Structure formats: C-alpha cells, structure tokens
C-alpha cells in the first residue's frame, strides 16, 4: 500500500467522526493526508456541564496501514482522574486495539473511553474538610474555583466560619466594629469568595466514608510517626524554625506527647468540638514552656488526630475533628 493513500473506508470513518464529534474532534492533516485525530472526551452528563468532573484528550496517530495495523493511541491532559483509573483506561484501549485489528476502531475507542469517564465521574482525592474521599452516592459541590467538598462538610465549615467571624467581631471595640468588613464566605482551599446557601448544604447527609470509618486508634505506626515528628519538632525548635513557641502569643499548633495518650477519645464523636477554658489555657502553657524542652512540659490532654491545628491554640474548632 502506498504511503500517500489511506484505505477508502478510513476517509469515510473520519468524515463520519467529524460530523458526530466536531468541535471536540480535530483531524490534523499533512498534504491532505489525515495523520492525527485529537478528541477531547468528557463524561456523559446530559447538558449539565457543571457535573463533568473528569476529562482527557485522546490522541490517535493513524499509520498508513490502518486499519490493518492498529493506530497509536495516547492519552493527554487527564483531569480529575487518579493513576489507577488512567492505567485501567490504558489497558482497556490496548485490549480493544488488539481485539480489532483490521476493523475501523476510532469511534468505538472514543465511546469506550467516554464510558470509562462517565463511570469515574467523581472528583478523585479527598474533601479537605473531612479528609474522606468522594464515593458514589455522596452529595458534593464543585465551587467556582474548581474545588470539591461534601455539601455536609462545606455547610459545617461555613457555619463555623461565620461563628468565628462573629466572635472576633465581638472582641473589637465598637468603633472598629462599625468599620469591619461584613462576613464573606470563602473557599476552604484557596479563599476565593464563594456563595452558598448554608441551609441547603446543612440538609445533606454526612460523607459515606465517614459512616463506616473505624474509630481512631493510636496504632504502633502512629506512635512511631509521632516520635519521628517529635524529633523533627525538636530539631526545628533548636534551629528557631517554629513560630509561636516561646512567644507570648498563642502557638500555631499544640504539641502533644504520645506517651501521655493511653486512652484516646474517639476522633469522630462530636461534630462540634468547642474548646473548654482548661484545654485552651493548657495548650498555651504547654507550648509556651515547650521552648525549653519539648519532652517535659505540661501538655493538654490528647484529643485525637489533627485537633490541635488551629492558629489560636484552641483545639478542634478548625481542625479535622470539628468538621465531621
Ligand atoms: Zn468532606
Ligand atoms: Zn477554591
């Protein structure tokens, strides 16, 4: 077969593909000979493009012997897909190509990949508020800044954000209160301004993964990690790299001691973890004296993972536990 010509059936296939998929499909030609097909594939969501969370571009290089020889297929610019799904699609493409040598295959390939994307049309990764993933059946939201949260978590986040704002406002002298900026909802990831109806978000069920999550257990693995982190913390402190420790201000994080933790409380018990005066002041005392020696200071009781991460030294309010 001459290099300059393609099977007549291929021209017909390409014509049909252009008719069906333009403008998502483009064909690059050299001297009038089709060389590469590029197709942007998104999942089937009807007309609702707001619900397309994944996508990729399929690049199909036609060889002169196509369809007697399989075209070269590569995936480009995958979005919202984790490696596991990408390699599954890759395997499926290979299988499809091997099983269809001698057949026009581009349309079927595109449809197969689209079907995979439709099945995987869930944002991958975690909701940064609860640290659980997104499962089929979860109710979640994509913000305008393309960040994803369970509605349930976002609702809680916005409620506590507003509460925090009001508490801070209360502390201001009245003349400053008048000038203060009004409360504004922000994205927990990038702080872009968002607008949600909290009452609607509040009605969403909790993340599915959280329902069958095991209660927190202090495993040997975690203990070992805590020891490593403690050594790292001591190293950071010795080099002056920990802001807040030793200052008069509340610390940015609370130092906990794995040795004191024999009976951890469940990390997922309460949705509202309000700091008590004792734990607040305990946290302060603990961290202030921590500059002397991290291992021998009085520390607040351990309240579960991540609860202490809070700029104001109050456990839980903005940490992982508070969002459950
Ligand atoms: Zn969540
Ligand atoms: Zn964002």
Structure description:
The protein has 324 residues and is of the alpha+beta class. The chain has 3 domains: 8-119, Ubiquitin Conjugating Enzyme; 140-211, 2-Layer Sandwich (Herpes Virus-1); 220-323, no CATH class. 36% of the residues lie in helices and 11% in strands. It has 10 helices and 6 strands. A 4-stranded antiparallel beta sheet has the order 1-2-3-4. Helix 2 (83-99) runs antiparallel to helix 3 (106-119). The longest helix is centred in the middle third of the chain and has 21 residues, at 151-171. It binds zinc ion (2 copies). One zinc ion binds at residues 127, 129-130, 132, 149-150, 153, 207.
Observed structural traits:
324 residues; alpha+beta; Ubiquitin Conjugating Enzyme; Herpes Virus-1; 3 domains; four-stranded antiparallel beta sheet; two-stranded antiparallel ribbon; 10 helices; 6 strands; 36% helix; 11% strand; elongated; binds zinc ion
């Amino acid at each position: 077969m001459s290099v300059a010509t393609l099977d007549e059936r291929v021209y017909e296939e390409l014509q049909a593909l252009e008719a069906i998929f333009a403008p998502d499909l483009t064909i690059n030609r050299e001297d009038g000979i089709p060389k590469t097909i590029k197709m942007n594939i998104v999942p089937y969501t009807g007309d609702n493009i707001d619900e397309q969370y994944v996508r990729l571009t399929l690049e199909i290089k036609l060889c002169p012997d196509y369809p007697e020889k399989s075209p070269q297929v590569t995936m480009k610019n995958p979005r919202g897909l984790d490696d596991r799904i990408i390699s599954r699609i890759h395997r499926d493409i290979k299988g499809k190509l091997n099983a269809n040598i001698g057949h026009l295959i581009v349309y079927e390939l595109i449809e197969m990949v689209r079907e995979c994307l439709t099945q995987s049309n869930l944002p991958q990764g975690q909701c940064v508020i609860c640290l659980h993933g997104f499962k089929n059946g979860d109710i979640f939201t994509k913000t305008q800044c393309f960040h994803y949260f369970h509605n349930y978590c976002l609702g809680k986040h916005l409620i506590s954000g507003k509460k925090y704002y009001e508490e801070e406002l209360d502390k201001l002298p009245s003349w400053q209160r008048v000038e203060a900026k009004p409360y504004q909802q922000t994205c927990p990831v990038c702080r872009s301004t968002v607008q949600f109806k909290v009452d609607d978000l509040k009605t969403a069920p909790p993340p599915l993964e959280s329902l069958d999550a095991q209660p927190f257990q202090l495993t040997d693995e975690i203990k070992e990690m805590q020891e490593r982190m403690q050594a790292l913390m001591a190293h950071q402190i010795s080099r002056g790299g920990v802001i807040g420790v030793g200052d008069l201000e509340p610390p940015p994080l609370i130092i906990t001691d794995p040795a004191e933790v024999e009976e951890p409380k469940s990390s997922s018990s309460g949705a509202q973890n309000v700091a008590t005066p004792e734990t607040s002041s305990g946290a302060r005392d603990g961290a202030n004296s921590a500059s002397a020696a991290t291992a021998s200071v009085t520390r607040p009781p351990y309240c579960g993972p991540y609860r202490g991460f809070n700029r104001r030294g109050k456990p839980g309010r903005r940490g992982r536990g508070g969002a459950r």
